[in-house]
Amino acid sequence: MLPVYKAVSFRNILEKGARTKPWLVFAKTETGLKPYVVKVFDTQLIEFRDSVTNEVLGNILAKEFDLPVAKAALIDFSGDFIDTIPDFNLIDILALKDDRLKFGTELLDGYIQFNREILTSAEAKKIIDIDTVFAFDNLIRNRDRGNSKNLLVNGYDAYLIDHELGFEAIPNAVSELMNWRWDTRFCQNHIFYPYLKHSFQKHKEEYFTVFEEYLRSLNVNILDSYFRQLVASGFSDKNHDSIREYLAQMKLNSSNFTLVLRSIIF
Q1: What's this model's pTM, rounded to 2 decimal places?
Q2: Rounded to whole angstroms, how far apart are CA atoms 52 and 211?
Q3: Which of 34, 88, 153, 265 meets the CB 3.0–4.6 Å disulfide criterion with 158?
Q4: Distance CA 51, CA 57 (A)
């Protein structure tokens, strides 16, 4: 399960957020106060997109593929915390947002958004496995890591962020795979698609090998405790069974999925 921390003081709203501008707060953890970037979703978005569940699962599953993500937690915005917010307009905005526990990740200080105009393919490969990121986002049906989005870098390493749009159209995914096709929304606009597409052929033939091994050995049951925690926190379980079944099917067809991914970049 994710730790649950109480927010104790408000710092500011991060204006770089797109659909949802995250809040920067200090939360009380086992090792003292830590800055957390917290998603403050509308209830409608949670109900329609299952955004909190997607964020939790994206963070947990990324680690199963040895992909770097910030430490995640569920953050409690209590009444005492709300009293620390200095701007009454922000309090009014918060009153319109969902009041359940919120998804947050520990602040990655000194990191900026990845930019293809700055980092070459060779430089990107030094800080993260670009083929595994591409394959992972296609696995979780996340079309939101495009162009210069949702990958934080500092020149030495990188972290994946933002999985609220994951698990889109998964009822169609296994059928797509069985028919040797894949929805282009999840691949052709991906941040690393141009790098992979323009790689040497010998590199393309090697891509996704490590990812396939991770997928073949994935234990889908690791998600169960997080599902239970989300339900206990008041979030819907409507998509849990379909996500479990989808991941189990993709695991069984890991080699075929790898072949489809390679066909996309050839």
Answers
A1: 0.95
A2: 25
A3: 153
A4: 10
- Gyration radius from the chain CA atoms: 19
Determine the Cα–Cα distance for residues 13 and 89; give it in Å rounded to an integer: 12
Per-residue pLDDT reduced to its tens digit, 145-183: 987 789 999 988 999 999 999 999 998 999 999 999 999
Tell me the sheet residues that pair with 9.
26
Q: Which distant-in-sequence residues (6+ apart) come within 8 Å of 67 by Cβ?
A: 128, 129, 132, 133, 136, 160
φ/ψ (deg, to 5) at 25: -130, 165
Question: What distance in Å separates the CA atoms of residue 174 and residue 260, rounded to the nearest whole number?
Answer: 12
8-state DSSP, 119: S
**Assigned token pair, 35:** 């800055």
CB neighbours (10 Å) of residue 214? Answer: 19
Question: What distance in Å separates the CA atoms of residue 204 and residue 197, rounded to the nearest whole number?
Answer: 8
For residue 149, the tally of other CB atoms under 10 A from its CB is: 15
Beta strands in the chain (DSSP E): 4-13, 23-29, 32-38, 72-76, 102-106, 112-113, 151-153, 158-160
Percent above pLDDT 90 for the chain: 91
What is the tens place of the pLDDT at every residue in 52-94?
999 999 999 999 999 999 999 999 999 999 999 999 999 999 9
Reading the block at residue 39, the tokens are 């998603």
Task: With H, G, I as helix, E, B as strand and everything else as coil, classify residue 118.
Answer: coil
Which DSSP symbol is given to 190?
B
Q: Measure the CA–CA gap between 25 and 190, rounded to whole angstroms.
A: 30
pLDDT digits (tens, 9 = 90+) for 192-238: 999 999 999 999 999 999 999 999 999 999 999 999 999 999 999 99
Q: What share of the chain is helix, strand, coil (3-state, %, to 5)?
A: 45, 15, 40
